[in-house]
Amino acid sequence: MIRRVLIAAACLALISVPLWVGNSYYVNIASQILIYAVFALGLNVLVGYAGLVSLGHAGLFGVGCYAAAWLLAGGSGHLTAALVALLIILATSAVFAVLSLRTSGIGFVMITLALGQILWGLAYRWIGLTGGDNGINVPSRPAPFGLSLASAVPFYYFTLIVFVLAVASMAVFVASPFGASLKGTRDQPRRMTALGYNVWLIRFLAFLFSGFWSGVAGLLFCYFNEFVSPNVLALGSSAEVLLMVISGGSGTLLGPIAGAALVVIMKNVASAYIERWNFVLGAIFVAIVIFMPEGLVPGSIRLWRWLWTGARRVPVRGDAQ
Amino acid sequence: MSQWLLLGVNSITLGGLLFLLSAGFSLIFGLMRIPNLTHGSFFMLGAYLGVTFLGLGFDFWLAALLAAAAMAVVGGGIERLLLRRLQGQELAQVLVTLGLSFMIADLCLMLWGGDPIPLDTPPGLGGAMPIASIVFPTYRLVIVAIAVVIAVLLWLMLDRTRLGAMIRAGVDDPAMARVTGIRVSRLFTIVFCLGAAIAGFAGVIGGPILSVYPGLDSDMLPLALIVVILGGTGSLLGALVGSFVIGILYNYGQVLFPELAYIILFLPMLLILLFRPQGLFGSRVP
Amino acid sequence: MSALVLKQLEKSFGGLRVTAALDLTVEEGERRLIIGPNGAGKTTLFNLITGELRPDAGAIALFGRDITRMPCRRRPHLGLARTYQIITLFPGETLLHNVTLSLLGLSALRWNPFRRLARQQALIARARAALGRVGLDGLAERPLAQTSYGERRRVEIAMALAQEPRLLLLDEPFAGLSIDERKEVHRLLLSIPRDVTVVMIEHDMDVALELAERITLMHFGEVIVEGTRGEVVAHPRTREIYLGG
Q: pLDDT-based confidence at C236, cuts 50/70/90?
């Protein structure tokens, strides 16, 4: 019951953001939070539910970004660019999956890292294709049904719709039998095989689902930024989204969203005061891994429960007489 | 001197530097089972410290040794204070090294600024040497010589000393090593310090060739990763062979296929991970 | 047609031969007990039968079908189920969810990403019934982490029985149980329908001997003695192996 109220309140808050948040600078930050939340939710499918840590997911984010940007800069229409980008995202996810699912654990981390780096190297060096460091300028944002997304508020609502779709699909996924199978492979892969599950195929399909949403986030970012450069594919980008998942709490739906909000806010707001964002990012990463490995959301829930039941257990004077 | 020959010299020079970087990385990976994502930062931080020591008037080689010593302290601190708290949780340790690499990179930016700092070739070694009617840049040969010497010293240490035997035991079978009374956690600290020190030393002596600049760490780390995966974790010979292979691929690749240079580097690593995951000379799968 | 036929099964790890030219035949409906000292290769045998380990040589047939090359994940679909010596359950989940997972493994539903698992009444009812058979339906909603060792052992058995197997492999089902818990499990095993073939590894002689019709004694990966209860108990090699005579 409380959950429903909280979700309703959250929805209300999100829908009314442009009203209470102030000027378009902050609306843009809100859009960014939503974009990275979708990215983090995508990664979380692997990290939180499959138990596979990827350090190359910026590759999938970036491939969506670059595909759309390249097509749009070349004169394609928006629908074509988006559809082709989605196909490329799925194809790249499939390739990533087939290569990296040969192992798990640390091997998986390294292969995904390598794959992400390869895409980054391509973007950086294949200047003929990607413009290298100069990046690609995106001529315009899409205009679905003729509605312009050029300004902050309409774009925010567009992003919000995609975000809601992403969260809904994740919620359905997690509550489904397939989701349960995936979580089973995270906890006891060998047992699952002996119970009749095809662990490789389960992970492969989960990877596609994960890559899809990470790529969609990249697509959104392409429209948001109207410019794409190799930075989106850098190891730092993969590390940042992993930080979002871990800091918020993997294995929950709220965690990556909270983590995305935390990192984006810190990055944008804090960098006005702190010059060296990367240092803070790294420090938070280290602190969370060591002190609150389950992440802020589960940790806070745990803390809340402890405080709540702890308070009720405080003996009232006159009890034990 | 013909371009290809120069490329060849540059390749083995890079190979030498890569070996110094990768030897420590390989031992850490083999013993502690983690790819130390801070290793590139050790190289870079050592190089920057070398710059400072040189600025204070120290002799080039002394500056390199001081930087190595400083990096040993840094490495030891990281291992004892941070990594040891996560004993047994390899994934968490990898993430911590990732976070630390970000912190060190920004620290260097804060302390030494964003401009690349070229290091002067140490006095007396700036010229060229004629060998068999071909003229080679002296300093590059010196680097290769140093790499070979250190390779031999490391090999002697691993093969002939008690410490080396313990390290090899730890690399082969940590559980067994613990049971036989080897203080594996102390080995971890020693190897981590040693790796950091050699990496820092390499950063300084590589300075005249690579310069010192922000981003040096993320340029060098993937190379170390590739070398070690190719050569096999925990294998010194693998690190040696892998370093020279990558040095050659890197230099010739840049010239022949500049746009695909990165793929040329990573492709062998991917292939090895897929078809021979223990690497060319390794004994275990990472 | 025999339930299980192992022919000349071989498995080595490095230089260590853990399964040595092993022949074994179990008839349908039989209650077979496999005994032997530690390290005899009993659990390895189970791993070979389920496919978690690949044999170096030899053949395995399940109800007349050669499954030697069949991947592990396909074998449960032929009616093979097992419990584990070391508890390998799903720690963050309730008992009900644990058993549901074992049922889901055999159902096409496991690929469905759209339906809500919690709404699959039929599946969940079967899982609850399976828990009921081991006397744990009262604890269905309890997280696994809050259950006792004995309860977890019973969950293992519930999961295996829930799959309605034709061949059930039990790996030390009595290990670490209290006297009452042993009686529970004993009663449970006696209640398994006769059309299910049961092969059990056990150390605890008293309890196990009662349940067994035929006994196979293994040592160093080989079958040393095989026969009825009486035959094996009386055999001189049995005494030798267990009493060092």
A: confident
Q: Which of C67, C100, C110 to mutate to test the interface with A (most CBs of A within 10 A)?
A: C110
Contact A289 B99 (CB under 8 A): yes
Question: Backbone phi, then psi, for A21, in 5-degree steps?
Answer: -90, -15
Distance of residue B9 Cα from the nearest chain A Cα, in angstroms: 24
Q: Do B117 and B49 meet the contact criterion of CB atoms below 8 Å apart?
A: no
**Residues A173-226 pLDDT 10s:** 999 999 999 999 999 999 999 999 999 999 999 999 999 999 999 999 999 999
Kindly report the nearest CA distance between residue A203 and chain C, in angstroms.
Answer: 12
Is the CB of A274 inside 8 Å of chain B's CB atoms?
A: no
The answer to whether the CB atoms of C117 and A195 lie below 8 A apart is: no
Do residue A242 and residue B95 have CB atoms under 8 angstroms apart?
yes
Q: Where are the domains of chain A?
A: 24-234
Distance CA C22, CA C63 (A): 18
Q: By the CB < 8 Å criterion, does A246 face chain B? A: yes
Fold of C1-79+165-245: Rossmann fold (3.40.50)
Where do the structural domains in chain C lie, given as residue ranges? 1-79+165-245, 89-164
Tokens in use for B94?
A: 């990898």
Other beta carbons within 10 Å of A11: 12
Region at B133 (left for phi over 0; alpha for psi -120 to 50; beta for the rest): left
Task: Name every chain B residue with its beta carbon within 8 A of the beta carbon of A286.
Answer: 82, 96, 99-100, 103
- Domain extent listing, chain B: 3-275
Q: Which of A178, A187, A194 is opposite residue C113, by nearest beta carbon?
A: A178
CB contact under 8 A, A125 and B259: yes
ipTM of the complex: 0.90
Q: Which chains touch C (3 or more CB pairs under 8 A)?
A: A
C147 three-state secondary structure: coil
Place of tokens 């290990």: C175
pLDDT digits (tens, 9 = 90+) for A225-262: 999 999 899 888 998 899 899 888 888 898 999 999 98
Fold of B3-275: ABC transporter involved in vitamin B12 uptake, BtuC (1.10.3470)
Contact between chains at A177 and C104 (C-beta distance less than 8 A): yes
With CA atoms as reference, the chain A residue closest to C118 would be: A175
pLDDT tens sequence across C64-74: 999 999 999 99
Locate the chain C residue with the closest alpha carbon to A193. Answer: C73
Please say if the pLDDT value at position C245 is more than 60: no
Residue ranges of E strands in chain B: 128-131, 134-137
- The residue of chain B nearest to residue A287, with distances taken between CA atoms, is B96
Instruction: Say how many CA atoms lie within 13 Å of A57 toward its Cβ.
Output: 35
For residues C36 and C217, is the Cβ–Cβ distance under 8 A? yes
B7-45: burial string, b at 16+ Cβ within 10 Å, e else: ebbbbbbbbbbbbbbbbbbbbbbbbbbbbbbbbbbbbbb
